[in-house]
């Protein structure tokens, strides 16, 4: 029995009724067939995707100008791989920690997994596919082959892009400097000494990179 101090809808009986309703709802949700849950989730995904309307983007990749429409949430990495089929740029950690996705944007190295494509309107992008001149490899690519600067090869595109930038930035005057400015590129195979040797050869040869 409610005390004289209980207001309507706040007494013990109302609390019990609310608890039973919540328990019944949770039980019902637990018994819903998986396909129905999946269908509801898919419908939600469609509604969320509809919010991200595609916007126009103009940029140049490896000397080729592109005019496309993409979702603003598309990373530069995904744009290169999925829209342009330039799969030489690798998706490693997807958190900007391994360097496998390194590309050049207006000559500066960038972790493409941390950058939205729409941020590069009107800019010039260079990927590993854009270094060679036809069948002639870039000097850094030749040096990596000569010095066995790779094993599994997954990190190699990002390593080469960073190595070229390292020389361009004037950060390859010593082994210690090279190791410091290449530290953002991880090689799980441990080919670091060979990578350093490749960079030193290109730097010492005075070749244009």
From TrEMBL:
Q: Which Pfam families match?
A: Fer2, Fer2_2
The record's keywords, sorted A to Z, are: 2Fe-2S, Iron, Iron-sulfur, Metal-binding, Oxidoreductase
An example molecular function term from Gene Ontology annotations: 2 iron, 2 sulfur cluster binding
Q: Which domain of life is it from?
A: Bacteria
Q: Does the keyword Iron-sulfur apply?
A: yes
Asked whether the keyword Oxidoreductase is assigned, the reply is yes
Xref: InterPro entries: 2Fe-2S-bd, 2Fe-2S-bd_dom_sf, 2Fe-2S_ferredoxin-like_sf, 2Fe-2S_ferredoxin-type, 2Fe2S_fd_BS, Aldehyde_Oxdr_Iron-Sulfur, Beta-grasp_dom_sf, TAT_signal
**Domain annotation 2Fe-2S ferredoxin-type: ranges:** 55-131
The record's section on PANTHER family has:
OXIDOREDUCTASE WITH IRON-SULFUR SUBUNIT (PTHR45331:SF2), OXIDOREDUCTASE, IRON-SULPHUR BINDING SUBUNIT-RELATED-RELATED (PTHR45331)
Q: What is this protein called?
A: Xanthine dehydrogenase YagT iron-sulfur-binding subunit
- Please report the organism this UniProt entry assigns to the protein: Hymenobacter luteus
Query: What broad taxonomic lineage does this protein's source fall under?
Result: Bacteria, Pseudomonadati, Bacteroidota, Cytophagia, Cytophagales
């Amino acid at each position: 029995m409610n005390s004289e101090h209980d207001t309507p809808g706040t007494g013990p009986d109302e609390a019990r009724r609310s608890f039973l309703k919540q328990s019944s709802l949770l039980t019902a949700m637990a018994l819903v067939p998986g396909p129905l849950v999946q269908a509801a989730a898919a419908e939600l995904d469609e509604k969320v995707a509809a919010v991200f309307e595609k916007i126009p983007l103009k940029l140049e990749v490896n000397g080729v100008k592109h005019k496309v429409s993409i979702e603003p949430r598309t990373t530069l990495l995904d744009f290169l791989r999925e829209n342009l089929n330039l799969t030489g740029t690798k998706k490693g950690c997807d958190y900007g920690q391994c360097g496998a996705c390194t590309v050049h944007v207006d000559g500066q190295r960038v972790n493409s997994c941390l950058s939205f494509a729409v941020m590069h309107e009107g800019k010039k992008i260079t990927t590993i596919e854009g270094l060679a001149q036809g069948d002639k490899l870039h000097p850094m690519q030749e040096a990596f082959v000569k010095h066995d600067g790779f094993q599994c090869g997954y990190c190699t595109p990002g390593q080469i892009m960073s190595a070229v930038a390292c020389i361009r930035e004037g950060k390859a005057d010593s082994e210690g400097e090279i190791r410091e400015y290449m530290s953002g590129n991880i090689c799980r195979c441990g080919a670091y000494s060979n990578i350093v040797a490749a960079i030193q050869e290109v730097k010492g040869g005075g070749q244009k990179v």
